[in-house]
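We modelled the chain as a single entity of 292 amino acids. Its sequence is:
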Amino acid sequence: MSRPRDGVLLVDKPIGPTSHDIVREARARLGLRRVGHAGTLDPFASGLLLLCLGPSTRISQYLSAMEKTYLATARLGVSTNTHDMEGDIVGESPRWRELDEHTVRHALEAFQGPILQVPPRYSAKKVRGTAAHRRSRQGETVRLEPVQVEVYGVGEIRCALPFVTFAVRCSSGTYVRALARDLGEALGTGAHLTALRRTAAGSLSVRDAVPADRLCDELPPAAHLSAARALAHLPAVRVGEEDAARLACGQAIEPTLEPVPEADPVVALAQGTLVAIGVGRGGVLQPRKVFL
């Protein structure tokens, strides 16, 4: 069985290992040195992890920027310092007993749209060049500034108080842990996340992913994407052989087959194969990354 050397693998990460643990396992199982991931999942979380292989490690930033969909469960009445069940309890309240499903649903749906969110102190968010979680674990008082994120939709809300399960579709950079924290604050009870599963990244679904312990098996076609297929969410332009050769030399082009979209980034494809990623301005494509 041939092992994939390029492209993007859709992997269903289990609860427990870190995202980098899965990367290390993929390197060992596939015999491939260059493996990276697009979008970290915390150890307690499961679900879709995108692994970029070989030359496709260079497209990870464009995959990380895709919107994400999660299925989450929050526990009202208990707050932790990490906003999940792995942290220390920092507050408890019995006020969740006074709540009903309508109140909880209304509070959760109020987070839809653009919001300012303070990232968790225990996160990879950088503070003066160092991850916030490292500074926090060293006893430093960490203050993070609010960041604008967007919650595109909240649904599938199920209440079995004090537990609330919901699906959320949100922009890259949104912390669902922080959403649980803020829900608890809005309800006056405190809250933390007890379960999190990423079900999609853009149009890529965990239903097509391969379990992390089966990377050596024959991969289903839907779980292994070419770089071009993985970038199908971006504006694209078809280029001919001559234009592809010029892009490969780092030269800007005015595509002869079709107009270049006015966008940043733009994917350039030659017969369905990724040639370059660049910026489209005034009918000209200026390459930023070349893949030939």
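As a brief sanity check on the tokenised model: Residues 52 and 58 are 8 Å apart (CA to CA). The chain has a mean pLDDT of 91.
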